[in-house]
């Protein structure tokens, strides 16, 4: 027998022993799959959680959703590298998709990977439950598969201009890497970010809370670069489950001629490859040109627009999709997965 629940109060999830354990670091080895991450999104990023679960005595499926008045979407935002179902049985996801039809007419999921089969599994589960599923690429994810290389071998494979920059600039910049949360280093990061080329931080409170938590767990790699005694670049990485995740990086525009960001990136790559011995480095989403200097693989991220096809509220969107893609391409997109 399948039991289905929806949790808007994350304290309920925490008090549910089986569910809390399933979403803990004991079972989930990426930050984006854990209850702690969902809680921080709710507390600091104004997201309304709706943790949908289906389970039997031995299996469980969790779909971390967010609910507003018009639709249900993924419980994720710009800090989330990828969104996916967290499950031990695909059949339970189909049961959950079927039950969701009782409470909503549309579900929108963005940033879904498929190198692990998530986009395919989600599309298949919702289609089996009678939904129309449209899938298209919406973003890129750059990664490096280390493949047993040491840092020096990895560096030798980088583009010539990057290696030249590092050779010329490394002596002008010093770096420090913290494996715990350091308040002074974090203040330096916030000052640097404010003077960088980047737009204002979406939720500084979320990012700091995440850094503190990862520091306590020993997963934080907070790098700071200095020139002339001044902090001029900073980056926030975390390391877990054989993967180094690059969350944030910034440098002062005034220090750009020193290439402090490149020098600091090199120091962090050396650290995670030679000391942490990671298998993969993940540069998150976005197709920024500089990521190609460091990464070797580009993976797509998908958006799934999921509709109840007989609900009139969805017809305008479905007709717009037909107008954009054509009936045949739309039918093919609906069948993929």
Automatic annotation (TrEMBL):
SUPFAM superfamilies referenced in this protein's UniProt entry, alphabetically: Acyl-CoA N-acyltransferases (Nat) (SSF55729)
Domain BioF2-like acetyltransferase span(s) in chain numbering: 170-292
Gene3D superfamilies found in the cross-reference section: 3.40.630.30
Taxonomic superkingdom: Bacteria
Pfam families registered for this protein in UniProt: Acetyltransf_6
Protein name: GNAT family N-acetyltransferase
């Amino acid at each position: 027998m399948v039991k289905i629940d929806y949790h808007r109060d994350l304290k309920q999830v925490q008090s549910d022993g089986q569910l809390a354990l399933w979403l803990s670091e004991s079972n989930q080895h990426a930050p984006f799959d854990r209850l702690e991450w969902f809680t921080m999104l709710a507390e600091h990023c104004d997201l309304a959680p709706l943790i949908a679960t289906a389970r039997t005595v031995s299996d469980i499926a969790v779909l971390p959703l967010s609910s507003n008045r018009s639709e249900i979407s993924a419980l994720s935002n710009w800090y989330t590298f990828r969104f996916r179902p967290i499950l031990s049985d695909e059949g339970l996801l189909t049961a959950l998709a079927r039950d969701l039809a009782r409470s909503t007419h549309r579900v929108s999921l963005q940033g879904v990977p498929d190198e692990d089969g998530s986009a395919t599994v989600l599309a298949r589960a919702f289609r089996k439950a009678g939904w129309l599923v449209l899938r298209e690429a919406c973003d890129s994810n750059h990664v490096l598969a280390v493949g047993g290389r040491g840092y020096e071998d990895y560096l030798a494979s980088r583009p010539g201009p990057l290696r030249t920059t590092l050779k010329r600039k490394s002596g002008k910049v010093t770096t420090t890497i913290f494996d715990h949360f350091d308040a002074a280093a974090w203040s330096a990061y916030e000052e640097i970010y404010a003077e960088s080329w980047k737009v204002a931080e979406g939720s500084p409170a979320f990012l700091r809370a995440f850094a503190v938590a990862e520091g306590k767990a020993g997963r934080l790699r907070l790098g700071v670069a200095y020139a002339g005694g001044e902090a001029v670049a900073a980056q926030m990485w975390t390391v877990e489950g054989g993967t180094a995740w690059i969350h944030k990086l910034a440098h002062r525009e005034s220090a750009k001629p020193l290439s402090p960001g490149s020098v600091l990136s090199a120091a962090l790559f050396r650290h995670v490859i030679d000391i942490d011995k990671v298998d993969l480095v993940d540069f998150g989403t976005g197709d920024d040109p500089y990521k190609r200097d460091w990464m070797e693989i580009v993976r797509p991220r998908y958006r799934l627009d999921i509709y109840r096809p007989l609900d009139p509220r969805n017809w305008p969107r479905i007709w717009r999709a037909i107008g954009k893609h054509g009936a045949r391409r739309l039918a093919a997109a609906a069948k993929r997965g």
